[in-house]
Amino acid sequence: MIIGFAIVLAMAVALVVDASAAYLQRSGLDTIADGAALRGADLGATGEETYTEGVPDDRLELTAAAARASVHAYLVDIGAYRKYPGLAYTVALDPTVDSVTVRVRAPLDLPLTVPGSPERASIGATGSAVVATAD
């Protein structure tokens, strides 16, 4: 009975440690996804020249290519690929509301494994931002 209790206790500890690791990675990916969406919305609509030439008076046009390039540059700039090896992302634009949605996903190396659990897990997060000018 003591051996059985020890096994159950060890599995519970492994579960808590793995859940904590997943939570911490998810929090980090949430921050990255939010920042990438903001950068994609900002530079995807206005481009780099906004900061030298000002915001145009007419509606900001969001372009998919510029948003994707801005998101990729942001991820490189902050070192996301080094911190999360295997990081992948998608960028979706909604032109009806001028929004950019970024989904990031990265593999998670579980510190401990519970028998029967997957050897490799993947964690994802989503961030979105809207581009608008004040009237």
Automatic annotation (TrEMBL):
It holds the Pfam family Tad. Residues 4-41 form the Putative Flp pilus-assembly TadG-like N-terminal domain. InterPro entries: Tad_N. This is Putative Flp pilus-assembly TadG-like N-terminal domain-containing protein. It comes from Nocardioides luti. The lineage of its organism: Bacteria, Bacillati, Actinomycetota, Actinomycetes, Propionibacteriales.
